[in-house]
Design a protein that fits this description.
The protein is 28% helix and 28% strand. It is of the alpha+beta class. It has a five-stranded antiparallel β-sheet with strand order 2-3-1-4-5. Homohexamer; trimer of dimers. Belongs to the MoaC family.
Length: 167
Amino acid sequence: MTALTHLDAKGAAHMVDVGEKTPTKREAIAEARVQTRPEVVAMISAGKIPKGDVLATARIAGIMAAKKTPELIPLCHPLALEKITIEFDCDATSGVITLQARCSLHGKTGVEMEAMTAASVAALTLYDMCKAVDPAMVIGPIALCEKSGGKNGHWIAPTTNSTRSTD
């Protein structure tokens, strides 16, 4: 099998050839955090943000972004994603919203970039819908928490403050 690299023999960037790889079940989980004021999280949870249902809109934006990852990230393979979920944990006490994006498929390449893109865009959408209420919101960190499938098997980030379930 050819080495999996984004550089060809001449050192030029190219899309990795995954043609000889065996399709496997692949899944990735990424998280993003949004820090805002506690009262803003309470408003979001109660559906009282003037622009509408923030969490539903951010969920749709994250799902749409995952599907568009190869259009946004150079050299990413176009993938037929089988499942994309975006979940939220709203902690009004700390003013933190944790977004978890999970992407999966049966394929020849992983879905880490799709999960990271989904989490990022969902967080940005949340910011966009709430910036009039709190322009000082902070997004981050955004991180890959877990991935499975392929020859490297199952990987979990060594240090994560994840709120994700392990189902």
